[in-house]
Structures are given as structure tokens and as C-alpha cells.
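The instructor's notes for this session suggest beginning with a concrete chain rather than abstract definitions. Hand out the sequence below and ask the class to guess, before any prediction is shown, which regions might be ordered.
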Amino acid sequence: MLIGIMGENCSGKSTLAGRIQSAVGGEIISGKDYLRMAKSEGEAAALFGKKLREAVAGDNLIYVISEREQLRLLPEGAVRILVRADLDTVKERFRARLRGNLPASVERMLEKKHGLFDGEAHDYLYDGVSGDAEALCRALKERA
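After discussion, reveal the predicted structure:
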């Protein structure tokens, strides 16, 4: 099963990916990590695309997506999970990631990108603040 987890920065995608991995197994690939699969970007994208297509009906693969252009890599049949968090939580988490300092330029970027994935098609909507990861994992196990 191919699971695509999409959402903005610091919404809880990676935490959820870890919980799903613990529940159903599978490899986690984040963002553009697939570029390590080959020396050229084109070759890496082709290899990754093949890996994603094979995962739809094969071994579990969890792809964590934080940029909209990465959505085009998800093939038909992927399970899509949209992770959302309120803007204050996103800012707080990003501030912690930056050791307590949130520059004004980063804050503006977070404000601009907030809700970027809200209009995207998804199979599950997960609240990155108070979502029930166990229930979502049970639902994914039932799909497998």
C-alpha cells in the first residue's frame, strides 16, 4: 500500500508517518529524499516513480509530502492523508525547531503557506494537533 501524507511544515506529518510505520510497517520517504536514488534528478524521479507505482499494490511505502509539486508523483491508487494544524500550532512548532527564534520572514512564509493543501483530494483528514492516530492506523490496516 502506498500512503501519501501531505500537509504544511510542522503540521504533524512526520510524527504521523512514524505512528503509521509502527502500525503497518513500510519505508518512509520524505520530500525530495528520493533524489538520493540516482546521480541525476531525472533518473532518480523515474526510479522513485516506479517504486511508488509498485507500492500501490505491493509493500507498504509512506511518502511524506510538504510541497504541492510533490503531489504529482503520487500515482492512482495511493491512499492520501491530509494533515492539518492551526497556524498558531504550526508557528509554535517551527519556533521550537529553530530553538525558540522565529524570524519575521519565516513567520510570513508560514502564514502564506497555511492551508496550501486544504483543497487537495484526500481519503483521510487528520488533525495534527488532536487527531486519533490509532483510529487512523486501524482504518489503514483494514484497507491492506
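Then share the key points. The chain has a mean pLDDT of 96. Residues 92 and 98 are 10 Å apart (CA to CA).
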